[in-house]
Amino acid sequence: MKLTYAILAVLVVASVLVSGCVQQGAPGGTGANDGTGGQGGQQNPPSLFGGTPSGPKVGDWSKVAMTTTSAKAIVFTYKSIEVTLGSVTYSGIETETDTSDSLIIWEKGKDTGTAGVKIYSLGKVGQLTLCNVITTEPTNMPDTKDPYADGAEGVTSLGTGTYTTPTGKTVSVNKYRYSKGGVTGEYWHSSEVPFVIVKSETNMTVVGREVNTKMELQDFGTGATSVFVQKDFEKCE
Known about the structure:
By secondary structure, this protein is mainly beta.
């Protein structure tokens, strides 16, 4: 999955498609570490996904507000969860909004960037829950390490700083500017925050239209639980 900041909101809100196929928007990034895959030759910012089974601890969560050109602001809560399906334990990243919930789970301890690792995608709207297997290509899950820290094509370091959430929590951040292939942006990341995202602004052209997307951390913490229950996971068996 090659996801960009600019189209993330569309993917998450449309977590349950008319066709019955569930898609999950993951928290920021492109989903491809090479920075390719943009629309119309545009180059997406480097991925926020490490492709490793590490990442946030179970129960960690972060709440991020997103605004996109000509669209209503949406608040996403990202949660790290763990579930058992049959005799197998799965790690998962859940995305919750006011109107829908979506979730990706994969076998605990497996590298999701490796072909052949089975990944389930669930979506819930009201009482309707659907589950399908993602088989198109390996999907990289979030890591806790700042993926830009070691440098990446198109990325320039803007130094360090701090950020304070509206709830009064202050974290250290690394700041970056991205410019490549018609896409520009500024990104603030922190390894102190589950899922790394603190603040971002991306500008790109989508179907001939200029799109500006902003994301900003509202709060984060521990103790999150899933809105999905065991009978929802049984749909994946």
